[in-house]
Amino acid sequence: MAYSDKVIDHYENPRNVGTFKTETDVTSDEVGMGLVGAPACGDVMRLEIRVKDGLIADARFKTFGCGSAIASSSLATEMIKGMTLDQAAEIKNTQIVQELNLPPVKIHCSVLAEDAIKAAIEDYKKKQAKA
Amino acid sequence: MSNASKIEVTAAPELKLPIFMDNHSTSAVDLRVVQAMLPYFTQHFGNAASRNHSFGWQAEAAVEHARGQVAKLMGGDAKEIVWTSGATESNNLAIKGAASFLKRQGNHVITVETEHKSVIDACKRLQREGFDVTFITPQKDGIVTPEMITAAMTDKTILVSIMVANNEIGVIQPIEAIGAAIKAKNPKCLFHTDAVQAFGKIPFDVEKAKVDLASVTAHKLYGPKGVGALWVRRKPRVRIDPIIDGGGHERGMRSGTLAVPMIVAFGKACEIAGEEMETEAIRLRGLRDRLHRGITAKLSETYVNGSMEHRLPGNLNISFAFVEGESLLMALKDVAVSSGSACTSASLEPSYVLRALGVGDELAHTSIRFGLGRFNTEAEVDFVIDLVTKSVERLRTLSPLWEMHQDGIDLNSIQWTPH
Lengths: 131, 419
Fold this sequence. Notes:
The complex is a heterodimer. By secondary structure, chain A is of the alpha+beta class. Chain A is built from five helices and three strands, in the order H-E-E-E-H-H-H-H.
């Protein structure tokens, strides 16, 4: 399969890789984490958001999956930065498909990225509700 | 933030990229084979079935010579070779042809879950037509024992089909013991073997294995694509129904004008394999073991799929835990290999061969098949070791599963969301 230049770019130079857990200036109540997918299905995404003053100030990800899955999650971290939680929750997988020129067989990668964003927001909101 | 950017691995100047290390899928045609076939396109281009002029006679003589070359490599007789378009046709002809001819004797066929798709799907076709088919699950190492076969045999069993060596994991079946066991239990039950991957790579003898039908193809042993053969035993005579009707070529078993240049090439490829197989196998085993050692010396959590002991010399099928196979293939774009990952197939299912071995889907998704062949060099292997280890390390820094594993988290304890 031929990959689009954008998929290759994100695959070769993934943005915002890592976890806030190991970053000392981040406190855990600022962070929401979404873990979606399953190893048996061949893709797992973990997306973290750091929220400050109601905005997603920063994001981190790690992905086990094909090149398109890595690219989808890398792109997702870039898209959500600076957004409010409501704006980020509105992101649709089709935007990712379009941006990365994903072929039909790879659409599930973009769906997973959308799910990861929603799961991270959900996790953050739960933490806030408890606090 | 972690840096997980692309790694640079420089190739020695004498190394030509990309490197082909996928010799189970096909192989480059040996130049000696090309030389042998060329005159049969423009000079000796006759139809081997033309009995009334010299063009036809020359073509026929060349075809008969090649028949002997192919038969010799498997210890058979030239008269027992039926030319086909390739192994898929040979497997279909053997299985459907035998079942059709023997349907009055019984309706039970036995094969193994790890067989090539052309065997599995031909057997599934028989199932739809009313035959009973037993698909045996192999041991965890990929091997089927003679006892597993005989235990499945009934007085209705007319055909057993078991490959010599597997195309994904390279595992070699105890084919001689299996043949002996089948014939001891029921001499009338036919034994077919798909010998495609083993032919010309390791010793294979139709008499020692007591097979009745054997499928082979040219393009896996440095011959051209588009020509294969089915060996059909003459003593005692094995009869099968044709699936292609026409001019009655190939003793009525396979009609159609013979592809003379391809057949000449197939013969030459077998002749070369017969002469060089022994030394080539030693060399390939050396390269394969070098590749395996080189990878495992630098990477932990790698798992070889299938028996390492009973394996084709050029095969290494290995899972790199926590790194998805297709993403690794992307990193190895200068090296042609293949993966058991679902993402590399249209079906989104991981390799059915690895599944049959009981390899978990999560590990099946991380498997890579290396297939070393005649034209691979030590320098290529060393480059691949370097590229693979650095790419796996990079992709592991990107993998949440690797991080969890490092943190001592049991991945089975997590509630995943399959999609």
